Structures are given as structure tokens and as C-alpha cells.
């Protein structure tokens, strides 16, 4: 490994250690339902989401109810993502006119993104529309990460609490999945993603709804058939917002695939 490689690992570990106390304490307050400095801004949004979803924030679940809610929610996300890919040819935010993703690729992508494995078997810029990237893959990057974090919080509560659960509303439960999911997304992942996306954009990572750009080559070349090539198509799109949550949520998959052949 090079010196730069070791330096990057060292810098990562240093930043991680520096964030343990402040970020860890903040996350403990979030999962404990305590007031944070983000409450004046996000508190009304949180309460609105509870009302829209019909969630009673004070009602706790036992571990079985918590697990069922988590599994049903992610199953719904899986089917919605599958449908979005299959219908993307008829939906907006598709400036390149990409057609439906094949059934096998749609199912593979939906399963892997809903389960946070995010195994990518497609070329993003030649397969997925902007809408699919944003409303499908990016949303699942948030929700799959939030699901894992919420489940871990419930597991920790189960270890820390000594009173066995008597009923779903008992304080002897392991929390409320919907509350944990919403608070994880609103108070932890979303603020970090916004800050990170702005940093990426400031460093030149693309974030746009414009169609792909055709630009002239500085030095013309020839293709495999001997034809002269004097221009190329640069894939663009709302990439920064997906890349940052991919990194925060330890997700696989990417907005672009540099190895894919471009059909345009």
C-alpha cells in the first residue's frame, strides 16, 4: 500500500474517533426520544409524518411486532422499487428516454437495495432514469440504512431493559419501529447527507436534471470498426445526492458505471 493510502486510512480513523463522542451522544438522544438542537426545524416535520402515517409515537412494540413492521415495510419498498423500474419509460424525469428495466434486473436491484446489499448488475447511466435513481435507489439507500440502525437501537433496548414486554404499549417493549425509522432518517441521515452532498458538489460532483451532454474530443480517435470518433456523450444527473447517502449507509451500487458501453 502507498503512503497516500495509509494516510487516508489514518485520516479516516482520526475523524471517526473525533466523532464518537459528539455524534454518539446526539444519536443516543435521538433514539431516547429526547429533545435535540434540530427539534425547532425538524420537530414539526416529525409530528406531521406521525399524523399522516397514523403512528402513536408513545406506543411501544414488543420484539415480534417490531420485527413484523420492519419486514412488511421493507417488503413494500421492494415491490415499489420493482414497479418503478418497470414503469420508468412512462414516467417523468427521464430526459434520455430510457425504457423499462428488464424483469430480472428490476427484481435483483429491488431485493438488493431493500436489503442494503445493493449489488449492482446494471450500468446506471444507461439503465436508470433520473426518477428511478432519486425516488427509487436513493430513497432505498436512506431507508435500508435507517432500517438497520433502527433495528440495532431496538436490539440495544432489549439488552438494556430488564422488564419483559407485557403488551405492545408497555414500556417494557423495544421501542416503536416507525418512530425509530423516522427519527433516524430525519435527525441523523438527512442532515449528514445534506452537508455531505454540498461538500461533494463544491468539489465538482455533478448534481443536475439536465440531459446528457455531447462534447467534442480534444483528440479524435477511432472505434473498433475503424470509424472516426470526434465527440462523446457525458452522462450527468443528480448524482451527488445519491453518492453521499451511499457512502453514509455503506450501500453498494453507484449512479454511474464507467465500464458500461454507452448506446447514445
Tags for this model:
2 domains; disordered C terminus; 264 residues; mainly alpha; two-stranded antiparallel sheet
What is the fold's blueprint, element by element?
Blueprint: H1 3-31, H2 39-53, H3 63-87, H4 103-114, H5 124-127, H6 130-160, H7 177-202, E1 213-222, E2 228-234, H8 240-248
Antiparallel strand pairs: 1-2
Helix pairs in contact: 2-7, 3-4, 3-6, 6-7, 6-8, 7-8
Q: What sequence of helices (H) and strands (E) makes up the elements?
A: HHHHHHHEEH
Residues in helices, as a percent range: 55-70%
The low-pLDDT segments are 166-170, 258-264
Mean pLDDT level: 88
The end-to-end span amounts to 39 Å
Number of DSSP helical runs: 8
What is the strand content?
5-15%
Strand runs, count = 2
Number of domains: 2
Q: Structural class, please?
A: mainly alpha
Sketch the major β-sheet: 2 strands, antiparallel
Taking Cα atoms only, what radius of gyration do you get, to the nearest Å?
A: 22 Å
